[in-house]
Each structure stands twice: as C-alpha cells, then as structure tokens.
Amino acid sequence: LQVPHAQSQPLGNESRRFTNKHSKKALKASLTLGILLGMFFVAWLPFFITNVAQAVCGCVPAGFFDVLTWLGYCNSTMNPIIYPLFMRDFKRAMGKFLPCCRRSAEPRPSAISLSMRNSHSGPRAPTSLKNVL
User: Fold this and answer.
1) How far apart are CA 47 and CA 98, in angstroms?
2) pTM for the predicted model, two decimal places
3) CA 115 from centre of chain
4) d(Cα 101, Cα 87) in Å, to the nearest integer?
C-alpha cells in the first residue's frame, strides 16, 4: 500500500512576503533578547560566582566584591540604551513622552488635550441636581 503524499502548493508572493516579514521580526526579537540576556550574564554572573566563593571560603577581597556589585548595577543602566537601539515600538512610545526623542514632523500634544485624554472627560452637557434625580 502506498500512502499518497500531499503536494504542497507553492507559496504566492503575498504569503512569501508575510513569512519573510515575520521571520525578520522574529530574528530581530531573538537578537535583542540574546543581547539583553548576554549583557545580564556578563554583568551578574561574576558577582554570583564570587558571592558563592565568598560564602564557601571567605577569600574574596571586599574591594573586588564591590567592583563586581557595581558591574551588575551597570547592567541596569545599559537596558535603557539597548531597548531604543533595537525596538522600534519602544522608540515610538518614548517619542510620545520625551521631547528630546520626538521627531520634528510629529505634532506636540497640548496640555489641555492630554488632560482631557487622561481624565476620560470630554465636553459634557451641564447637569443639575434636578436632572440627576
């Protein structure tokens, strides 16, 4: 008995573009995640290894331990640099809130429109106690 093989239909141009677009996004997301995790391990792994060594033998100088602690703290300062470099959505979100990151073509929202948007209030008809009851 032979099992018939399902023939795969060739992908159209649109499907190919869709696949390429999503594979590029996935590759970029993987690259960003790899860089973030790599930076985390480079910054914090020496600290954790030294911390265990200090607990076992007590042979780690205090100055060296402080340097490794600050290396880990520096990792936290690298994240705000790495995210804007690799994530377009992060750049757009920051551009809305920080004037230094806003593009010149984007209109600057007025304080009134921001407060109206944040308070979920728009123009309202005047209400009186008589209308409420």
Assistant:
1) 34
2) 0.50
3) 26
4) 14
Q: Does residue 49 sit within a domain?
A: yes
Which of 79, 83, 91, 84 has the alpha carbon at shortest distance from 39?
79
Q: How far is CA 77 from CA 36, 73, 80, 131, in A?
A: 12, 7, 6, 56
Name, in order, each residue with C-beta under 8 angstroms of 11's C-beta and a sequence gap of 6 or more: 19
What is the pLDDT, as a whole number, of residue 66? 93
The answer to whether 69 and 47 have CB atoms below 8 angstroms apart is yes
Domain count, the chain: 1
62-120 tens-digit pLDDT: 999 999 999 999 888 887 787 777 777 777 887 788 777 666 555 555 555 555 555 55
Tokens of 132: 């409420």
Q: Is residue 93 part of a domain?
A: yes
110 part of a folded domain: no
Range of the domain at 67: 43-97
CA 68 from centroid of its chain's CA atoms? 26
In a domain, 13, yes or no: no
